[in-house]
Amino acid sequence: MDCTTALLPRLHANYLLCPSRHSSSLLSKTHFSSPLKLLLQTKQLSFASSQKITPVFCNATLSDARSETVELANIDWDNLGFAFLPTDYMYNMKCSQGEGFSNGELQRFGNIELSPSAGVLNYGQGLFEGLKAYRKEDGNILLFRPEENALRMRLGAERMCMPSPTVEQFVDAVKATVLANKRWIPPAGKGSLYIRPLLMGSGAVLGLAPAPEYTFLIYVSPVGNYFKEGVAPIHLIIEHDLHRATPGGTGGVKTIGNYAAVLKAQSAAKEQGYSDVLYLDCVHKKYLEEVSSCNIFVVKGKVISTPEIKGTILPGITRKSIIDVARSQGFQVEERLVTVDELLDADEVFCTGTAVVVSPVGSITYRGERVLYNKGGVGAVSQQLYSVLTRLQMGLVKDNMNWTVELS
Fold first, then answer.
1. What is the pLDDT of residues 160-204, one digit of tens each?
2. Nearest CA to 334 among 310, 314, 305?
3. Sheet holding 56-58, edge to edge
4. For residues 119 and 208, what is the distance between their CA atoms, to the nearest angstrom?
5. What is the mean pLDDT of residues 125-150?
6. Residue 226 pLDDT class (50, 70, 90 cuts)
7. 317-343 confidence digits (pLDDT tens)
8. How far apart are CA 47 and CA 222, in angstroms?
9. E-strand spans in 111-233?
10. Which residues contact 203 (CB under 8 A, 6 or more apart)?
11. Residue 83 contacts residue 110 (beta carbons within 8 Å)
12. I need a surface site. Which of 14, 314, 316, 402 has the fewest CB within 10 A?
């Protein structure tokens, strides 16, 4: 294997870590269509350090990668919350309207430059995804269903008049970014590496129209539990005046504007001591839709019901996975319209999402009336499904679903 070692006294925040084939003394931008054709192996990299850094570049594919001892970042792994921490590298790829993406690159994590007239800033032409990487006990890394995120982004891009990476480009870019930030992946059982792919209209546009240029970007951050309660009951309030999505809108795709719309109700709820908000449909105002950033499930006996995907609800990947897991565990799962009355009469309620995984609901408040589930504790169904899914995600059991992708 032909490897080039370059000694750098310091790396600029946006310096591209891709060695030129034509230069042995300097590093310069090098584009590559498949991120894993240039596997970056680094040790003891420091984003904010002035110490010397010795990156090793190897012209290798993923199959050539070997397990190695990686010194973890110096952070308190036992007290990770769900907050952003800057890591070492991000991934960047651009294309023009009407063309396909190609020639992506890894670069040092840092600020990006956008025109004030960028489509994403002026008209909200942007999508994002979220997925996680877990470290196994043997040091290998597991991704959970990254191709599903790629497919969902492609569907969202079509709705938002944007080009998008192919499934292969998306998955390869995720793998490359995770491996480049390997030291930021928490030890087994201490959390996960949250992966945030972004697709945005970065080109300048004044009139209302699709942007002329697009940027696909991936950054990562180590995280712990999304809710401060951890794997403990959360408390929701039903919002009946404000709505997250409308029929014919963009509620069914992961566009950035969907999430800004929930901030007002969510902030008010948290000020009152609730964990989050559950939204109703905007037409009848009696059918459940979803929580601010996760899907909702209602348990009655051996039947688990969840709102059907009909254009106003995000097709969550964890939602889809939990449905399959629940059926494999002997539950009957129904995707249909679910009323508030059914919710208030349920034996158990829980939420699902990439960030929360499975989060049991301890209480629901609706028009001043508070209903407790399992005396405010964790329900047996929530605990069972959480355990089955997280053990699979972390590589603690055999993956009979073929959902995980393992990296060395």
1. 999 999 999 999 999 999 999 999 999 999 999 999 999 999 999
2. 305
3. 3-5, 56-58, 39-41
4. 9
5. 97
6. confident
7. 999 999 999 999 999 999 999 999 999
8. 14
9. 126-128, 131-135, 141-144, 192-201, 213-223
10. 96, 97, 115, 118, 119, 211, 212, 213, 214
11. no
12. 402
Q: Which two tokens stand for residue 137?
A: 């006990």
Contact residues for 232 (Cβ-Cβ < 8 A; gap 6+): 360, 362, 378
Pairwise CA distance, residues 358 & 230, whole Å: 10
User: pLDDT digits over 27-75, tens only?
Assistant: 233 344 444 444 443 333 333 333 333 333 333 334 443 445 679 999 9
To the question of domain 234-394 being in CATH 3.20.10.10, the answer is yes
Name the CATH topology of 89-224.
D-amino Acid Aminotransferase; Chain A, domain 1 (3.30.470)
| Predicted local confidence at residue 178, as pLDDT | 98
- Segments of the chain assigned to CATH 3.20.10.10: 234-394
Q: Which amino acid is at 252?
A: G
Kindly report the number of other CB atoms within 10 A of residue 361's CB atom.
30
Q: How far apart are CA 295 and CA 290, in angstroms?
A: 5
The catalytic residues are: 254
Q: How many CA atoms does the CB half-sphere of 265 hold within 13 Å?
A: 22
DSSP 8-class letter at 287: B
CA 191 to chain centroid: 14
**pTM summary value:** 0.84
Instruction: Tell me the torsion sign for CA atoms 225, 231, 232, 235.
Output: positive
d(CA 190, CA 4): 34
Residue type, 393: Q
Please count the other Cβ atoms lying within 10 Å of the Cβ belonging to residue 81.
13
Pinpoint the residues of the chain covered by CATH 3.30.470.10. Answer: 89-224
User: How far apart are the C-alpha atoms of 232 and 247, rounded to whole Å?
Assistant: 33
Per-residue pLDDT tens digits for 282-318: 999 999 999 999 999 999 999 999 999 999 999 999 9
Angle at the Cα of 221 from the Cα atoms of 402 and 131, rounded to 5 degrees: 25
- 3-state secondary structure (DSSP) of residue 150: helix
C-alpha 313, offset from chain centre: 17
